[in-house]
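pls design
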């Protein structure tokens, strides 16, 4: 997967473009992108947040399927989606080694899943299992508030 995504996205700018396109496809009308001043620090965090339709627990499971996307199945969309092959998530590989998705499902529940790309062994045929975890609003706030406060200090 890593070699595949490295060939798809030649620069971090293209990777961010893909992530913003994913937000657009989710129906977002607002997208926020934060890139730290010093991206080389080991604890630097970058994030993309939007107000689009989110995923539930099952949606997070489907999210990781490569070459599969159901976003074109939804006929009620007001605008045509940009993506169609379900590979946009691979853009994150060239931006980070750890990716955490936090979603608020339409039922009001929060879910999170983390992918650690450094756990992928290119010689392994082993399936990677990711566990989707349900979070409370308090847990979401406790995760995000320190990150946002730390990163937005001027």
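designed seq:
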């Amino acid at each position: 997967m890593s070699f595949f995504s490295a060939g798809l996205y030649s620069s971090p700018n293209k990777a961010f473009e893909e992530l913003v396109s994913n937000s657009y496809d989710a129906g977002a009308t607002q997208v926020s992108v934060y890139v730290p001043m010093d991206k080389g620090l080991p604890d630097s965090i970058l994030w993309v947040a939007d107000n689009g339709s989110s995923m539930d627990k099952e949606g997070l499971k489907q999210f990781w399927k490569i070459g599969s996307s159901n976003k074109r199945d939804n006929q009620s969309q007001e605008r045509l989606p940009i993506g169609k092959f379900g590979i946009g998530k691979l853009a994150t590989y060239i931006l980070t080694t750890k990716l955490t998705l936090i979603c608020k499902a339409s039922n009001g529940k929060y879910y999170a899943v983390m992918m650690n790309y450094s756990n992928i062994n290119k010689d392994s045929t082993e399936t990677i299992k990711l566990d989707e975890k349900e979070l409370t609003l308090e847990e979401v706030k406790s995760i995000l508030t320190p990150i946002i406060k730390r990163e937005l200090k001027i």
